[in-house]
Amino acid sequence: MIELKNLSKQFETADGSVDALRHINLTIRDGDIYGIIGMSGAGKSTLVRCINMLERPTEGSVLVNGKDIGALKQKELRAMRRKITMIFQGFNLLMQRTCLKNVTLPLRLSGIDRKTAEAKARELLALVDLPDKANSYPAQLSGGQQQRVAIARALATEPDVLLCDEATSALDPKTTHSILELIRDINKKLGITVIVITHQMSVVQEVCNRVAILENGEVVEEGGVAEVFSNPRANATRNLIYPESADGGSVFPEGGQRVRVIFNGAVASREPLIAKMAVDCGIMASILGASTRSVGDRAYGYMLLDIPGSPENLAKAVSYLSATPDITVQVEAEYAAKEVEA
Ligand SMILES: Nc1ncnc2c1ncn2[C@@H]1O[C@H](COP(=O)(O)OP(=O)(O)OP(=O)(O)O)[C@@H](O)[C@H]1O
């Protein structure tokens, strides 16, 4: 288990100090595939570097199985880094060495003899589905294959945790999918906890069971992936889940009464619900935005509705929509139009 307790990181720069991380509290359980997602500059890389102490937090602690790793001596820290390994967006392979040598290196560095190390490296290259690339150089491989070699290298020291820092960001969607499948397999077969740092919600959706959303160095939302997708509370989360229809409000008319109808796995079509509300309650709602997607075999998504008329109409619509199974309703804006007129 990894626990981040009140973790903060401040960088001092010529222009003053930057709060890269602010009071982060997170628990990553053994066996999780845990997503940490945020826009550029949110603090993801700093967070991942604090998890393995490549960056020292300014405040707070990182506990691995209850042990404060900030207090480890250099030698213990090196041993810990063999148990929490990392893969990167740019793969970071040694280009002058064969794939076999790349995977062998961490084993040799930990004192294992050449023959045993090479046998283990060949096993790992087979595990990542590259049994025939031992003697190839990284430049002779595709991006996806290079990331597989990097994964084999990261697994060489039999880690408990694999940190993936934007590991699929340089790959096309099909290759991304195959690498995420490999990560899921490794998590299941080898029982390795995985932390996935990404700016793409699709990556979280595909592979993670839990997620934390970072914004300006703070965790603004955390939970099970299905739960967060079905009912995103923070604006940052909504913008990441529905980037194509991020509704800051400026594209919609001023004022009005907006409700967000969230589908929590309901296989509901939109039009009948709105049409039914018109017939049953006489409320003619307009759809301001909508987006749905599926997670596993469940459908999630939302509709943003404008409810015309009085506050009583709004209350009636909320109560009508809330009575529908697997739907949550949130009032987005109060009856601002009336106040503007008054
Ligand atoms: N070494 C550093 N010195 C000063 N400021 C830094 C340093 N590293 C990061 N920062 C600042 O800390 C904040 C968080 O940066 P970080 O790289 O962790 O974000 P990120 O979410 O990983 O972004 P990206 O996705 O663009 O890599 C940013 O404002 C960044 O400018």
How would the blueprint of this fold be written?
Blueprint: E1 2-13, E2 16-28, E3 33-38, H1 44-51, E4 59-64, E5 67-68, H2 74-83, E6 84-88, H3 99-109, H4 114-127, H5 143-155, E7 161-165, H6 173-190, E8 193-198, H7 201-207, E9 210-215, E10 218-224, H8 225-230, H9 235-241, E11 258-264, H10 270-281, E12 286-295, E13 298-306, H11 311-322, E14 327-333, H12 336-341
Parallel strand pairs: 3-8, 3-9, 6-7, 7-8
Antiparallel strand pairs: 1-2, 1-4, 4-5, 9-10, 11-13, 11-14, 12-13
This protein binds adenosine-5'-triphosphate (ATP).
Adenosine-5'-triphosphate binds next to strand 1, strand 2 and helix 1.
Organism: Aristaeella lactis
Protein name: D-methionine transport system ATP-binding protein
Keywords: ATP-binding, Nucleotide-binding
Name a few traits of the molecule.
2 domains; Alpha-Beta Plaits; six-stranded mixed beta sheet; disordered C terminus; 342 residues; Rossmann fold; four-stranded antiparallel beta sheet; binds adenosine-5'-triphosphate; 12 helices; elongated; single chain; alpha/beta
How would you characterize the overall build of this protein?
By secondary structure, the chain is of the alpha/beta class. Mean pLDDT is 87; it is low at 246-251 and 334-342. It is elongated, with a radius of gyration of 24 Å. Helix 6 links the parallel strand 7 (161-165) and strand 8. The chain folds into 2 domains: 2-240, Rossmann fold (3-Layer(aba) Sandwich); 251-341, 2-Layer Sandwich (Alpha-Beta Plaits). The termini are far apart. The strands form 3 sheets. It has a 6-stranded mixed β-sheet, with helices on both faces. A 4-stranded antiparallel β-sheet has the order 2-1-4-5, with helices on one face. Helices cover 36% and strands 30% of the residues. It has 12 helices and 14 strands. The chain binds adenosine-5'-triphosphate (ATP). The site of adenosine-5'-triphosphate (ATP) has 13 residues, from strand 1, strand 2 and helix 1.
